[in-house]
């Protein structure tokens, strides 16, 4: 079964794209057929996966307006098992163009109804807002994955995000759950990090991954080379964290399936 996971946080610069790109790469490296859908007009996930601008003529914008299929929009990357639906600035128009349309929050879900089953994992990189584009991701996904930057304002936006997720669960996607929260730009020498970690773990309990992503300059250098950090420098602390994160995700998925079997 295909697992569709939206990587969401309306706060900007918290590590959504870095997480999407590197977690997807780690899953692909483990042998999982993986697709990244770049649903951010900034196109950072496409850049991070080495897709040139000239190869973004067909993009996630066309998926949302329904003019192409998933297969037509996805391109291969240099990483085996990893495909991407790229994006570019055109996508910002979708927010306006779709306002008039019926079922505008369900466009991505409709597109995923054919072609998604060739993948084990689909990770959707969302923009830093809770607008219509992110709504499309939350309606299409089975689960939400939330990167949280270890900084003072981390928890401020979180309650708003959790309320939005509840609203989507009630109105549009009852199956939606949160499969994980992950702490990014973690600096264990910093007292504030320690404080935030204990608040977040106290509040969200086991939803929070035990794997944390350290602040690591290699993670920020890799996109300028058009490569995921895991390919750019597999041994840096950031890459190791994302490999651990993929393992933890797979372990949690196993537990989830066995719990579901028990309930059934
Ligand atoms: N663990 C980390 N250590 C150091 N730098 C990081 C780390 N994670 C991300 N960065 C850098 O921080 C910046 C923001 O990260 P990223 O683009 O992944 O965040 P984002 O949530 O996707 O941002 P946006 O909301 O704009 O889409 C980038 O320059 C990225 O390279
Ligand atoms: Mg991003």
What this model shows, in words?
The chain is an alpha/beta fold. It has a single domain (3-263), classed as P-loop containing nucleotide triphosphate hydrolases (Rossmann fold, 3-Layer(aba) Sandwich), CATH 3.40.50. 45% of the residues lie in helices and 14% in strands. It has helices spanning 16-29, 44-48, 60-65, 70-73, 91-97, 107-112, 132-140, 154-171, 191-204, 217-221, 229-232, 237-263, and strands spanning 3-7, 34-38, 75-76, 82-85, 121-125, 143-149, 177-184. It has a 7-stranded mixed β-sheet, with helices on both faces. The longest helix has 27 residues, at 237-263. The relative contact order is 0.18. The model has no long low-confidence stretch (mean pLDDT 94). Bound molecules: adenosine-5'-triphosphate and magnesium ion.
Question: How are the SSEs ordered, and which strands pair?
Answer:
Elements: E1 3-7, H1 16-29, E2 34-38, H2 44-48, H3 60-65, H4 70-73, E3 75-76, E4 82-85, H5 91-97, H6 107-112, E5 121-125, H7 132-140, E6 143-149, H8 154-171, E7 177-184, H9 191-204, H10 217-221, H11 229-232, H12 237-263
Bound molecules: adenosine-5'-triphosphate and magnesium ion.
Magnesium ion (MG) binds at residues 16-17, 40, 44, 125.
């Amino acid at each position: 079964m295909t697992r569709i996971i939206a990587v969401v946080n309306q706060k900007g610069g918290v590590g959504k794209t870095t997480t999407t790109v590197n977690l997807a790469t780690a899953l692909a490296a483990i042998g999982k057929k993986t697709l990244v859908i770049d649903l951010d007009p900034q196109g950072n996930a496409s850049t991070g996966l080495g897709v040139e601008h000239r190869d973004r003529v067909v993009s996630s914008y066309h998926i949302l307006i329904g003019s192409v299929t998933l297969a037509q929009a996805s391109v291969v990357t240099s990483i085996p098992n990893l495909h991407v639906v790229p994006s570019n600035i055109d996508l910002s128009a979708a927010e306006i163009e779709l306002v008039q349309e019926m079922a505008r929050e369900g466009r991505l879900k409709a597109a995923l109804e054919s072609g998604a089953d060739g993948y084990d994992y689909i990770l959707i990189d969302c923009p830093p807002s809770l607008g219509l584009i992110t709504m499309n991701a939350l309606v299409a996904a089975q689960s939400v994955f939330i990167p949280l930057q270890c900084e003072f304002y981390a928890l401020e936006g979180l309650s708003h995000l959790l309320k939005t997720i509840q609203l989507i669960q009630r109105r549009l996607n009852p199956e939606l759950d949160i499969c994980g929260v992950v702490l990014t730009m973690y600096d264990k020498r910093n007292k504030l990090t320690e404080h935030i970690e204990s608040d977040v773990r106290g509040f969200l309990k086991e939803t929070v991954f035990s794997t944390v992503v350290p602040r690591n300059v290699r993670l920020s250098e890799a996109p300028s080379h058009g490569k995921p950090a895991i390919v750019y420098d597999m041994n840096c602390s950031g890459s190791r964290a994302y490999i651990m994160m993929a393992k933890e995700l797979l372990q949690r998925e196993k537990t989830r399936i066995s719990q579901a079997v028990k309930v059934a």
